[in-house]
Design goal:
2 copies of one chain form a homodimer. By secondary structure, the first copy, chain A, is of the alpha+beta class. Chain A has 7 helices and 12 strands.
Chain lengths: 259, 259
């Protein structure tokens, strides 16, 4: 659009809000209608012109641990969405949006015939939990929290990233490997052995120093912490400082937080 | 200040930054110098004109469970701060600021001779953890998260407040009573029996419905969730909506978040 008149006509061409997607339960049993629920066409009919389509989210794919399991969740997610859309179509109700997605299923999806949208949340950044369940490698995690060493005690270091900077997310507690409140990396992204942030106070994080592999760091030294769950950690910050292979900030990306 | 010249002279009258407080360890063993550490006057001397005083924080008071224990922590906090300030004074170094404080010790403090500042964090709002350790009553919690019922399943309700709205703080896990991710209240602040947010997904919370005391709520009904740790929960929001005995918002208080 190039001027106000164009803007107005572009807005006028948009479908009138609100538009509603009906949530389909593809197996997580958290929310939504089953794809074969008799109420499905009734709900769509009752939405009238607001009915825009269906969406589902295989959140239970986070319980998967192998590519085979992930493919199974991905197929079930796609199948549930398409089945729901087909039932609606048979009732004369066109789902213009058929939306699926979770990060594990996005990465293990097969053909997506009948799907119009794949929503993938942490997909673009990755995190320790996703690495633990095999959706990507540990080296693929693209978000870290920069922190400084602010204290030393026998056997441990104190850093200025605590729960407010890292979040209190403990999702890797149930993963094959428990990373505490995050994995400790140097500025180049290389790990310090098995070091993790073991405790997170509100403003302080505690890194335990393994006696067999002491971390020789001093007050003022900088570290990166790879997060358990990037969505929760990133929500604690109002922007990303983007770097590309070194420590030069090449862009600052604002975030949309809140509701 | 009324104009630029006044502003400039007001700024000129401020103490020159940076001003530094030396942290004193009053027993938590997290950070800071012991009050009798030989390095204390050396550090203050080295700070030169930046030296403004000392501060301590009895974070280990969160481990207390009785008024007697809390008073003990409060006395130790005050004693450590005053002892450090007196040692510095004896070396000719005047601590203009002698700062103590944690919420439990603020509430159980005795005479504060020699102290110039008491920092109390969650003191003004309270939370479930503070109620569990006896610093105030459950009815004194002044911050809740307003949420809506968005789903029903046998034995549980789904609400639109998950980890992003409540935080993933689980501090009451170690308290006498575990409130999950928060205690469920009605709009008037009255509890629904023992109901808590048992699971917190990113955007969804799950309230388990006790078979003996079913919660008769419907989709769209509103609830309040009292937080485990108000500091962490409030940090997820950019403002407070202030009410005073009913549901009329009488003020909106912005928050300072981030670093």
């Amino acid at each position: 659009v190039t001027d106000d008149a164009d803007t107005a006509s572009a807005i006028a061409a948009l479908p009138a809000p609100p538009r509603a997607l009906i949530e389909i339960d593809c197996g997580q049993n958290r929310c939504g209608l089953a794809p074969d629920d008799p109420a499905l066409p009734v709900v769509a009919q009752n939405l009238g012109p607001a009915f825009a389509g269906i969406m589902t989210h295989a959140g239970h794919s986070y319980g998967g641990r192998t590519p085979q399991e992930m493919r199974g969740y991905a197929e079930a997610e796609c199948r549930a969405a398409v089945q729901a859309a087909e039932r609606l179509a048979a009732a004369g109700l066109q789902a213009r949006i058929v939306s699926i997605g979770s990060t594990p299923t996005a990465l293990h999806a097969g053909p997506l015939n009948g799907v119009t949208e794949l929503r993938a949340g942490v997909y673009m950044f990755g995190d320790l939990f996703q690495a633990e369940i095999g959706t990507h490698g540990l080296d693929d995690i693209a978000v870290t929290v920069l922190t400084s060493v602010i204290g030393r005690r026998p056997g441990r270091l104190l850093v200025d990233a605590g729960g407010l900077a890292l979040s209190k997310d403990r999702s890797t507690e149930a993963a094959p490997r428990d990373y505490g409140y995050g994995r400790v990396l140097d500025l180049a992204g290389q790990p310090f052995g098995d070091a993790v942030v073991r405790r997170a106070y509100q403003e302080h994080g505690v890194i335990e120093r393994d006696a067999d592999a002491p971390i020789e760091l001093h007050i003022g030294d900088k570290l990166r912490i790879a997060p358990n769950h990037t969505c929760m950690t990133a929500a604690a910050h109002d922007r990303y400082h983007v770097i590309d292979g070194d420590d030069v900030v090449v862009a600052v990306w604002p975030r949309v937080n809140g509701w």
